[in-house]
Fold each of these.
Amino acid sequence: MDSLYDASSDSICRVAEEVRVCKRCRLSEYRSNAVPGEGADSAKLMFIGEAPGRTEDMLARPFVGSAGKVLDHALARAGIDRASVYITNIVKCRPPMNRRPRRDEIHSCMQYVMREIMLVDPKVVCLLGRTAHDTLLHGSFREHRSRYVKHGGRLFFTTYHPAYVIYNNKLREIFVSDIISIKMLLMSND
Ligand code: URA
Ligand code: SF4
């Protein structure tokens, strides 16, 4: 994104339309559907994952497969309505065999997530896992996990990727308590 970006002439709808037909990187060749972000377009809380998985690629919606269930469960435990948040990914097309997105793919796709952040303008951006963390923040995932970092005038919170905690009760509890702690912060700011 350059400094000439003008959010007043852009919109979340427009980002989604561009994503659906995007061919800026090789991931377009493998997808069934590109997966734009979804949710409230002026949400106070935004979640950013890594990349769509198989279910997301089929349904063209983010976090609707097994990782999505973990996220939904954590949102429910925190008393957060999924429709009140905005959920997106670093890359919008599923990498083949669910491999990690490559650096050049992330680079090609990054303008979309940057526009989503500026347009939604959330109070807190929650980074789900290492790919989202390492793409948007400097420093180490390990040091930032379960913590807030202010970057570019915006508050970022880093936690595990929900797919990473699926089979580990201890990590899943940490994940849930992280989401609850974000909810508490947002309530105290209201
Ligand atoms: N994992 C992600 O990072 N994003 C999704 O949308 C689904 C699974
Ligand atoms: Fe475009 Fe991003 Fe999909 Fe690549 S991953 S084709 S940059 S939407």
Note: The pocket of uracil (ligand 1) is lined by residues 49-53, 56, 62-63, 65, 67, 89, 163 (CB under 6 Å).
Amino acid sequence: MAPAAATTDPAAQAAGAAIDPLDLYAVRAALSDEERLVQESVARLVDGEVLPIIQRCFEEHRFPKELIPKLAALGLLGSSIRGYDCAGLNAICYGLICQELERGDSGIRSFVSVQSSLCMYPIYAFGSEEQKQQYLPRMAHGELIGCFGLTEPHGGSDPANMKTHARKRGKDWVLNGSKMWITNGAIADLAVVWAMTPEGVRGFLVEKGTAGFSAPEIQHKFSLRASVTAGLFFDNVVVPESQVLPGVVGLTGPLSCLTQARYGICWGVIGAAQACLRQLLDYTATRMLFGRPLAANQAIQLRLADMARRITSAQLLALQLGRLKDAGSMQPAHVSLAKWNNCRMALDIARDCRDMLGGAGISAEYAPIRHMLNLESVITYEGTETIHQLTIGRELTGLSAF
Ligand code: TGC
Ligand code: FAD
């Protein structure tokens, strides 16, 4: 199966022409012209701007902030939102954006996920018109960076038991508590913070520099090193009523944001797996052992074939998920199944690629170990694998095991 462009020519198909090893079931051919165009433009950005710097960023534990204007110029921030200077693209386009970005690095996709699905989406879905006008255009242009605070130090899987709380004082709210593992936290101008109130969970828009609010960066991560992660601390932070999201009360607010971001992850991790397989195909074709290319061994081909099978299944799952989302019929359980399946697929493939590169696999010069380390976070955040398995179990049985 030599790497070559897909063909639509019947004669060539009948002759068994080579197909794209990263797109065995011709998912690209199922895309609209606009979807293909979006994928190609993000792919160019990743090839030209991300891949040349990402290994160094990962080693230096540095998020490349210089990419933000480039991501914004392509319309990748809040790309699904209509109006407010956003691109208004469909769900498939958003998925393809995530896939291409994560082919570069999960940290870059994380940045876009958080800005788009976890910060701009709740303002768009639950904010007042003033809040939308105030924040969304600047966020689309990358002039204002957001973060999303839900997880707390005592246990992220169970946000219903959050300790961060807000109490009314006159016309204002007073916020106390802390959040942990918050992507973009230390570089964010605006935090969307979920806190318990006497009425239930509510969303608060807390600007950087507000008295009593701090966001120190978490250091020494072995994963997502090209991404900023922080704690958020609230010590009697005064938030005016105008900074509360008026459109939602209850856990359904943050959980519906998670549905948007998890959807993007289902596509994103395919990009990481494709990057690993692409590098492995090149490596095994040229690595000579026992007098022949490594790729000529049956045991190697079995493993390569298994990777292609798993990537193809994940692509078809993501495509159908996107079609359901665009049709307005996607349910949270659909997303849980794909988040579980696709993250597991990508992590297993990255680990297997690392192994098949031998000693070279532990070098930062090869992408699989970086993707593998990143994917340890991706399979944990936005709901751990177990949480998504239990969500499917609850769907099947009608019984909650949480
Ligand atoms: P449960 O009873 O299931 O639900 C409470 C209320 O929420 C509603 N709901 C949803 N609404 C919208 N979208 C969804 N996906 C929803 N899922 C549930 C539900 O209908 C109910 O509404 P109501 O009106 O009846 O009250 O809640 P539970 O306490 O049993 O918990 C369920 C569970 C465990 C699945 C949930 O707590 C969960 O998903 N836990 C995992 C938490 C998580 O994923 N945290 C992620 C933090 S953010 C993050 O990781 C960002 S990483 C970013 C990056 O860098 O890319
Ligand atoms: P815990 O909830 O303590 O879980 C520990 C273990 O117990 C897991 O294996 C889990 O699967 C298992 N477990 C939990 N409940 C059950 C059960 N009922 N039955 C069986 N097993 C169970 N959060 C945000 O709010 N915003 C962000 O931007 C954000 N970014 C992140 C970035 C990174 C790099 C990381 C690593 C995390 C980020 N998170 C963020 C937090 C993330 O969502 C949480 O780490 C995740 O939800 C798990 O929570 P926890 O770490 O507290 O683990």
Note: The longest helix spans residues 252-286.
